[in-house]
From TrEMBL:
Organism: Hufsiella arboris
Family: Belongs to the MscS (TC 1.A.23) family.
Chief localisation class: membrane
Name by which UniProt lists this protein: Mechanosensitive ion channel
Segments crossing the lipid bilayer: 16-36, 57-81, 109-134, 155-173
Record-linked PROSITE patterns: UPF0003
InterPro entries xref list: LSM_dom_sf, MS_channel_C, MscS_beta-dom_sf, MscS_channel_2nd, MscS_channel_C_sf, MscS_channel_CS, MscS_channel_TM-2
Annotated localization: Cell membrane
Keyword Cell membrane: yes
Cited PANTHER family: MECHANOSENSITIVE ION CHANNEL PROTEIN 1, MITOCHONDRIAL-RELATED, YNAI-RELATED MECHANOSENSITIVE ION CHANNEL
One of the record's GO molecular function terms: mechanosensitive monoatomic ion channel activity
Matching Pfam families: MS_channel_2nd, MS_channel_3rd
Gene3D superfamilies referenced in this protein's UniProt entry, alphabetically: 1.10.287.1260, 2.30.30.60, 3.30.70.100
Length: 379
């Protein structure tokens, strides 16, 4: 059998050998995409040398393997399609001196996706570099460098994305990028006005990094919102509240409003009142006062500056005011200390034969006698 004659046979505008090459290239791409992508990942990793030696190489490979596989498949598909002449060489648009073939459109589509995939690879490399810096930052005591790494990672990705858009506009759509950039310069004022709040939040993020009113991990309070800083982004800051929910606040609000960094405090302040019944004797009240003060002073993790005073005569109670400071910054530990002190106060009050007051009213009846000797009562 003459195989050469068979392969040169034309079918639907293409020779059989072209269909064979088409199929072989696609099969090779599907078969070796994982192997080739891993090899390319390892070659790229060698470019980083000692920089990436502090982390597991699999981290880098896992980041790149997916985009590289897609890049290999796109390349294989593009090479396979180019083995066919018909119908790719057909003119699909014609006007004056302009003639566009189907292959021209296919080329542009593949170029578009290949550029996107290449920038995807670049973004994954940025992720790896950020991962290495984040690992090195975690070895230091300061949390400011962790915050800087996260910020620079986002900044690098945004800049890379903008460059990618301009590359696509110039390479795929044949636009004059220089003219577009100049046009953006002319319309910059209009864009700035339209994105006023976004720009304010962006400037707010730079202010946070320069002034450092807080870093990632600090416990802060903004207005009535209290939480631990988890991330500082370009537009907003994420807080993990004591209810374990995520609250996202615009950076503009973080620098314009009153912000309290409770991590920088030495103590947590506790202040409340105790109401005792009016039948409590003065000496009992003094004893309860002194015992509460002594207990809090002697307890660990509380400041010696304790104030327990007989504050006022209430409508239905004798009011003692208790004021003390807790050294523990962890919120859960702080709550446990408050709970223990509250239980002890109850024990002290009950041990002295006193009782806590609650809203009550007392009605007094006056007995009177009329002129005929009858007795009656009036309120």
């Amino acid at each position: 059998m003459d195989y050469s004659a068979y392969l040169n046979t034309t079918f639907l505008g293409n020779e059989i050998k072209n269909y064979v090459l088409f199929a072989l290239i696609i099969i090779a791409g599907l078969t070796f995409k994982r192997l080739v992508s891993r090899l390319l990942s390892k070659l790229l990793l060698k470019l980083f040398g000692k920089f990436g030696s502090s982390v597991n190489a699999e981290v880098f490979i896992n980041l790149l393997i997916k985009p590289l596989e897609i890049l290999i498949l796109l390349t294989a598909l593009y090479l396979s399609i180019n083995q066919l002449d018909y119908p790719l060489d057909e003119v699909i648009f014609s006007r004056r001196d302009t003639h566009i073939k189907l292959i021209d459109v296919v080329d542009k589509v593949f170029l578009f996706f290949i550029i996107i995939t290449l920038f995807w690879v670049l973004l994954r490399i940025i992720d790896f570099i950020s991962h290495v810096f984040a690992y090195k930052a975690s070895l230091t005591e300061s949390k400011a460098d962790d915050q800087v790494v996260s910020f620079l990672k986002e900044l690098s990705k945004i800049i890379t994305g903008i460059i990618g858009v301009f590359v696509i506009m110039g390479s795929v759509f044949d636009l004059n990028v220089a003219t577009i950039i100049a046009g953006l310069g002319i319309g910059g004022i209009a864009i700035a006005l339209a994105a006023k709040e976004s720009l304010e939040n962006l400037l707010g993020s730079f202010t946070i990094f320069m002034d450092r009113p807080f870093v990632v991990g600090d416990l802060i309070r903004v207005d009535s919102i209290e939480g631990t800083v988890e991330k500082v982004g370009f537009r907003s800051t994420k807080l993990r509240t004591t209810d374990k929910t995520i609250v996202t606040l615009p950076n503009k609000k973080m620098i314009d409003g009153a912000l309290e960094n409770m991590t920088l405090r030495n103590y947590r302040r506790v202040k409340f009142n105790i109401g005792l019944t009016y039948d409590t004797k003065p000496e009992t009240l003094r004893k309860i006062n002194n015992e509460i003060s002594d207990y809090i002073n002697q307890r660990e993790l509380t400041n010696n500056d304790v104030t327990v005073i007989f504050e006022s005569f209430g409508d239905w109670s004798l009011n003692l005011q208790v004021l003390y400071l807790v050294e523990m910054m962890d919120f859960n530990e702080y709550l446990k200390i408050r709970e223990e002190i509250n239980y002890k106060i109850m024990e002290i009050v009950q041990a002295n034969g006193a009782d806590f007051a609650y809203p009550t009213s007392k009605v007094i009846h006056h007995q009177t006698q009329d002129t005929e000797g009858d007795q009656g009562f009036t309120d």
